[in-house]
């Protein structure tokens, strides 16, 4: 896999970033590439458990029309149903274990910088989809996955077992992982690898066992009250906005926990319709986090109680809707050692452990594999950055994509490679 | 009845004011006076419905000991049970209607001024019971009642029917009226009069139909949570103080009502035990008011919902305890006309209507009488004042007491008087 | 003036309602009609004080384009500048007083009912401008003004003095009146009449002296804080949403006032941008009201203090922007009597006084006239209604428009009419 | 020093515990003991900087009278001024370094258990001062200090340099340490030792370098508003209780900090005077904590801003009063090694580090010594406990007191011991 190919793919994706659950163009291009290579393709509708997809609000027809205008592959676009993402499967035909890789493909809501010195501007691949940007390197992850697909297919003759490449939609906000895990396609996987570019590590480095993945629940709360004329009969209303204000204030006051880090945020609040009307609805978007699942559960259970109580206090009704979820993740120990050795051979400087400090819904996939006896690991592929993740001048050293492909391919060869003797 | 007697009684009571439910000395002196005159005495324990006495927290033994030291009548003090107040009944032995009069006897929590120009200081009858003062003229009401008792007994030979004189405890905070009404002693009463000295009217004036008696509910709320060390495990507590703060804030925000005046106050809040302990209890004292019963009910039902909801939101339990209650009152129309005519004859300037603007639990007594077909009225006996009611320099023109006795006696004569012919 | 004409005008306006400050079509049609009749036209830009127009956010080009598509008069549309509304002046050429009339022309944000039994649906003149509706009878007011213009011009030969017809934009939200008053065109007016259709009075009735016009201030508050990643460094943000919640809660808790009715509402709150970002901005839309200006000032001054304090408590900055204002209004006594007599003659049942209970920025115009010694009155022209004002099935008995025109014309004749003798 | 002596002292102190700043009996007994031994005594008035004593509210005459009744040493009681605590100094007369030891002497507000199985009840030394208890082992610390005084004086002939024994008042609530440090008596000290019995370590263990001493600020907030009759003119008040509720709610919502553990508590709130009066004062008692000084400063600065802002929002004034303060502390490395070696020799099991997890104002004393180039350490002398610290059944294995005395004496000998040669 030449670096030039990886860069072409990455920049094409960077130029046309797609939001979570709207990655129709991206999905069609990956599907076309893997399909051409000979992979068996399973599309999103068959891959994700529909009842567990979170934070999904898509006008499918409009998004597909947009994707078509922006150069989606027309045949695949037609085949894609309502749900983005896909799996490509390579079956060597020889008995052996099943390996899996997971790449996330969606962009983030950041308006890309138009500063002259910003490399994507200079090189002409800055985002054309205003307000959205690949500021979290998922374009790089996707390119690595596409490159790995080529590489593995080229090695097919020397491999046994099966390989599954997962291209997951909606990682931002931790909205897609739980549904992908529950979909069942990982249930025969013996070992799963996932990676992220450039978190707290530079080019040429590999973090073997990143820690402190925050457990998180993303939620919306709706309060439904009764409107009334605020001048004529204020007593006749049930004030949803007042309930939301009190709920927000109370949530911010959830006590800290003895056992470690917790977080709460109400990031958005929208309520009311007219200046002189008692507001009959309010909607807030929030999230809890915890250093582990018990801590996050503590926070979210308090949120639920606060919402119930403040709704009661204001005589309004409510709904709480989970919009995303991430759990902790633990790299399988033997797999860590194996990958450290491979990285070493490849000339990468290995870092045993480093703080991740954010959330990742890969945890659901890893848990699914590990619970049935498989192994799983999540790596940080170091990369020099122009600016931090989610910053509007984010950019990364594209050369690391090649290392990524090579490391993953090397691992596949180590696990699935067959000797000449076996082949004959 | 000479004015000198009225003044003596009033000043004696003024000097030794007793708080609501603690009027043991006062009760004993009235009972002695009426008993000597020949009235049948019914004491508090037999007079008030025990389950409806509100805001009552009395160390009976200690208060009786105090009353004894302060010159209570020893025999009557012994006969008084736990509950203060009394009724004296005069039965003429001749068939006829039953009239009733109600006087309130308790003092208010005000520390009397020690200013030289304050008349009670000059004349040496300022309060000896520190922190308590007859700053609402109940000393005057009681003296009028005692004087009326003498006057009526003196007229007994010319009267038919029966007369009941009610000396009600615990009017301040509207704590005694509901229990007295429910006690049943008013159930055979054909007409009831009550009066207040000096509200918005001067010496020589009589307000026939005062209006805007505020309906009110006095309540305490207790929140019970769980203590925990605020440093070591803040998550382990349930914060009763936080619940009380949120409840208070929400109560202050109860919407105004289309139909008229409403009020809410949280007058006291006491919570917590140690600086470094999550507070496990909180207690707040509040009141609602409304221009009519529906408005006060609206306010108090919101309070109840808020307490329930905020307790739930904070994971604490709660109790709401009613500590006082006042309803609206309406003077019977025919009785108004009758009293206006009598007042006229007596040389008083009558004012048809004037705003009362506060609460009075005489409403319960009047409602009881009126519901069974009787008549009732509440009068304002005008008096020039040294300072407003509840002020620490409150004092009133004592001469009006004599007018009061005469007006009430004149009414009794008009209703119950018998002609020589009848007598012979 | 035939009723048929009035109905045609009213239904045309009803079909194409225009929001406050966007009444370009309406303004052009009125201007055309009055211009044809021979009135001197003064358009909005010359009529309203630009610094006092409140709650104005208009894309003038887009609105004019819309108005053109919807049949605005093209020549007048061109002459109208940025500001809607107009005055038409009739100068009789004979010395005499100056009379004025004020009509409001904007629609309200209500989506008209599509129920079959709703008369405007049946007759085909329901709103074509989705989300907006003449649900406050300003279409009727405007039609009356146009009919009056015809009538008065027809009478011109029998009149002395001058007549000014004001068609005011942006009465909804009380946004235009203050600027119109300050514009100065009323400064030579001796007497001003304004009216409203159907508030608490039925067809055939006229309320001579409606009362309880609420004083009101409409305001927006912006809080500006600092964004930060809610997971990584929550301490680095300044939470504008939290400030807005606390401000809202505190505003709802502004104490009731001894002197009478007050109101507070926060009708809308919009805050934050991303679920995982400490919100750096919040915007709330509110209003205060009071039974008189002092009460409204009390409320609004508390709002200002609360906003300042809560901003400080949360380390954010703020702006408060007035978006509308209404003051009380008092009908000149002599004018009341005069109008009652005229109404009587015309066969209308007069009601001396009735509660208005809402806000009206005609108060600014009346105050301007009265302060310089003129007279002013605001009448309620009774009308049977299909549903209350601002309801989506609002409709009124169109026949009352003719009575309205006749009453106003009769008053003009009474004040400005000249005898044959004078004319000859 | 026999264990019997230590136990006698400890149980005598346990039976008559004295609150912070009220340790008059305790101080007199220590002073008497050390004075008899030949120590130079410096009493509290000369030892503590008066402007930095925090959370001190003492009726000195009453407390001294109580202390006298409870067996204080009468001569010393007379000599003690207003301030408790003392220093005893032993000067060997030979040149050498100055060593210091610090013991805290006050009790904590806990009502001792009357359970039969509670050892102090069985043995008859449970607290006679109701509501107060030596539930934090300061009785043991004091006994160790008194025993050490005897031991050192017995060794005087073999020592050079000087020794200062500090008996600090008011450690609970971290109220006395800052004033003692600022008093200057430590300024010539070369090395300082302090210890605590039984925190997270059992009998026979010694923790060399306890960590995670929480920085903390204890504070009271007073809000001063304006009273008004809640029914008659609620608008005339400035509600201090409402301000306190909002301040409390906002404080609980101070954002968590990226850099580590923070805490906030409002442990008490007392506000208002009458149910029907707008509350004109409110007082709250709170504390902030942080894993280090920067974190605690972050918390406390937010508290200050919140109080200022909420006071402004409610139109009330405020005062913030610091009632206690603790900073972090770090054991000098060389001293750690030295003490570990000594403990080893003495047969104690040493634990290098263990979490302390609470606050200690010894930090101010240690900082004072270390800043001028001296060394300091704080040790945990392990002890088996009957119940946790501050629990009402707290009790500790008294035998550890002897180990404590021996370890401290051994250190003094190691540092100040002189050879026979030197002596001769």
Automatic annotation (TrEMBL), chains A, B, C, D:
Q: Does the keyword Hydrolase apply?
A: yes
Q: Which range is the signal sequence, renumbered to this chain?
A: none
Q: SUPFAM superfamilies, from UniProt? A: Bacterial exopeptidase dimerisation domain (SSF55031), Zn-dependent exopeptidases (SSF53187)
Q: Does the keyword Ligase apply?
A: no
| UniProt keyword annotations, A-Z | Hydrolase
Q: Know the name of this protein?
A: Peptidase M20
- Per UniProt, residues of the Peptidase M20 dimerisation domain are 218-308
Q: Which InterPro entries match?
A: Amidohydrolase, Bact_exopeptidase_dim_dom, Peptidase_M20, Peptidase_M20/M20A_hydrolases, Peptidase_M20_dimer
